[in-house]
Amino acid sequence: MGEGSLKAVGWAKSFPVSGGVKAGRQWARRHLESLPWTRDAPETVDAIVLTVSELITNAHVHAHSGAQLVLAWDSRCLHVSVHDSGSGEPVPPSQDPDRTSGRGLILMDALADSWETRHQADGKTVTACFSPPDRPDPHGSGTR
């Protein structure tokens, strides 16, 4: 299968509060292996897996919820979406360098090309977009 033949693909899985973070990382990494560009972009794959870990952790810790993870490749961007039952808005933590937790949004802001939160009747979904290194940012001029 050539680079141009895989136009769009997606995967979805739910992860319970117990053991969901590690399982989510492993699941995401396995599915990313099927995208041809990931072989040449190990740093991007690591950033995606770290983002998956942080978003599932946030769902478990802050929303006290299981996490529904969706990975969707649309030939421009890999969308990493995590839905939880929490209604609150993700809030970046203080910039305290001694803080040992609460850095997920800071990491996601640094790693993803863009990200957003959408609220639904049953909770919220946080979605981050990752473009392959050889493709331009699909959401503009590098702003987040």
Describe this structure in words.
It contains 3 helices and 5 strands; from the N terminus they run βααββαββ. The termini are far apart. It is α+β, with helices and mostly antiparallel strands. It has helices at 20-32, 42-62, 104-111, and strands at residues 9-15, 67-73, 78-84, 114-120, 123-130. It has one domain (10-130): Histidine kinase-like ATPase, C-terminal domain (Heat Shock Protein 90).
In short:
The protein has 144 residues and is α+β, with helices and mostly antiparallel strands.
Topology:
Layout: E1 9-15, H1 20-32, H2 42-62, E2 67-73, E3 78-84, H3 104-111, E4 114-120, E5 123-130
Antiparallel strand pairs: 1-2, 2-3, 3-5, 4-5
Helix pairs in contact: 1-2, 2-3
InterPro entries: Anti-sigma-factor_SerPK, HATPase_C_sf, HATPase_dom
Protein name: Anti-sigma regulatory factor (Ser/Thr protein kinase)
Keywords: Kinase, Serine/threonine-protein kinase, Transferase
Tell me the structural class. alpha+beta
Kindly provide the name of the CATH class.
Answer: Alpha Beta
Q: What gross morphology would you assign? A: globular
Query: For this structure, what is the CATH homologous superfamily?
Result: Histidine kinase-like ATPase, C-terminal domain
Proper CATH architecture: 2-Layer Sandwich
Q: In whole angstroms, how far apart are the ends?
A: 33 Å
What is the H/E string? Answer: EHHEEHEE
Share in β-strands: 25-35%
Mean pLDDT over the residues: 85
Q: Which fold name corresponds to the CATH topology?
A: Heat Shock Protein 90
Radius of gyration: 15 Å
Number of strands: 5
Q: How many discrete domains?
A: 1
Largest sheet, strands/sense/barrel:
5 strands, antiparallel
Poorly predicted ranges:
none
**Proportion of helical residues:** 25-40%
State the strand order across the main sheet. Answer: 1-2-3-5-4
The count of helical stretches stands at 3
